[in-house]
Amino acid sequence: MTAPDEAISGLAPASDTVTVLGLGPMGRALSAAFLAAGHPVTVWNRTPGKAGELAARGAVVAGSVEEAVRDGQVIVACLIDYEAVRATLERPLDWAGRRLVNLTSGEPAQARAMAAWASARGIGYLDGAILTPTPAIGTAAATVLYSGAGEVHEAVRGVMAALGGDGVYLGDEPGRASAYDVALLDVFATSVNGIVHGFALAAAGGIEPGRFAAFATGIGGLLPELIARFGQQIQAGEYPGDRSTIGSAAAGIRHVINAARAHGIDTSALAASKGVIDRAVEAGYAEEGLARLATTLLPVDRGGAPARRG
Ligand SMILES: NC(=O)c1ccc[n+]([C@@H]2O[C@H](COP(=O)([O-])OP(=O)(O)OC[C@H]3O[C@@H](n4cnc5c(N)ncnc54)[C@H](OP(=O)(O)O)[C@@H]3O)[C@@H](O)[C@H]2O)c1
User: Fold this and answer.
1) Res. 166 pLDDT band, cuts 50 70 90
2) Ligand 1 centre from 79 Cα, in Å?
3) Residue 190 CA: distances (Å) to CA of 183, 187, 196, 292
4) What number does the ligand 1 atom closest to the CA of 26 have?
5) What's residue 168's pLDDT?
6) How far, in Å, CA of 241 to CA of 149, rounded?
7) Same domain, yes or no, for 222 and 78?
8) Which residues have C-beta atoms less than 6 Å from ligand 1?
9) Confidence grade of residue 14 (pLDDT, cut at 50, 70, 90)
């Protein structure tokens, strides 16, 4: 086994030892990718018996956190939340020559608090956020964001390359990866809500899910261009209403709400969306494009400060 300090070598050799804390679906996928890249891997999970085929593929299954951390040069935590990471690591552990990469999803403030916790204990800490599902890990399709101490990123990036795809370093502010993560999860969560609501409304209208899906995927196909265009407009602070307007969206969402209510379908999420649109209309944005709604959500705009018009 290599001495821990030899890991500080930029693109590290596959002999660098990796410990994965957490064997949920993502922890197992990470462990499999490190094994596939040739790293000696030790795994640990709070509840025993979750290592599955990892042991047969060569992973050491540690019986304790102490043993797991002792085995690794790069300690990768992938647990349900930051509280679980703290609960797991809040004990005397030998961190000499080791680095902690926390790929647990959370909030920016939690990432900053975790970095401070690690700093107070002299632990080299890198925060991270995984943007792709488990099957993508270890393939070119994987995207993992990192933020935190630059020297820790340099030391572990060779090992983390085993996860495949893009490893994007966002700088030394530890909450940065998480800030991207929560905003992207926002897009995903609200999109899923819209999709399932559409299926419910279609079903109530007697439309087969398969038939509906064929048309709904057409809407999905519009989104990449729309997201890129909104990005440009929000960056420029200009919201042309040449393609469609907030005033038109206000009429459209009324139809959806009325139709859903007629079937007794929950309209709470739609009502919240309508509330945002109505506020934008009241603020004088009816003739502007939908990207303007991003500013209507901001407290500064709602309070009538600089961004507000009319
Ligand atoms: N799965 C995905 O597709 C995906 C994609 C992107 C990001 N992520 C992120 O990756 C992280 C792990 O996700 P996951 O899908 O593997 O499963 P998960 O259900 O989010 O987390 C399960 C893991 O957390 C452990 N755990 C829960 N509470 C704990 C505690 N108090 N102390 C110690 N360990 C605790 C579980 O151990 P036990 O078995 O003992 O309960 C298990 O190892 C999450 O932050 C998730 O958001 C997942």
Assistant:
1) confident
2) 4
3) 11, 6, 10, 18
4) 16
5) 97
6) 43
7) no
8) 22-27, 45-47, 50, 78-80, 84, 87-88, 104-105, 130, 133-134
9) confident
Q: Which of 2, 59, 65 lies closest to 32, judged by CA?
A: 59
Atom of ligand 1 nearest to the CA of 133: 3
Domain CATH for 129: 3.40.50.720
Question: How many angstroms does the Cα of residue 251 sit away from the middle of ligand 1?
Answer: 42
Are 65 and 166 part of one and the same domain? yes
Let me know whether 221 and 86 are in one domain.
no
Do 166 and 209 reside in the same domain of the chain?
A: no
Mean pLDDT across the chain: 93
Residue 163 φ/ψ region, left for φ over 0, alpha for ψ in the -120 to 50 degree band, beta for the rest: alpha
Q: What pLDDT shows up at residue 305?
A: 40
Q: Residue 251's domain spans which residues?
A: 205-302
Indicate which CATH number applies to the domain containing 261: 1.10.1040.10
Phi/psi of residue 76, nearest 5 degrees:
-105, 120
* Side chain identity at residue 243, one-letter code: R
Residue 38 and residue 127 share a domain = yes
**Domains: count for the chain:** 2
Domain assignment of residue 168, yes or no: yes
Give the tens place of pLDDT for each residue, 27-69. 999 999 999 999 999 999 999 999 999 999 999 999 999 999 9
Question: Ligand 1 centre and the CA of 242: distance in Å?
Answer: 45
191 occurs within a structural domain: no
At residue 300, the pLDDT reads 65
What is the model's pTM? 0.90
Q: Is residue 297 included in any domain, yes or no?
A: yes
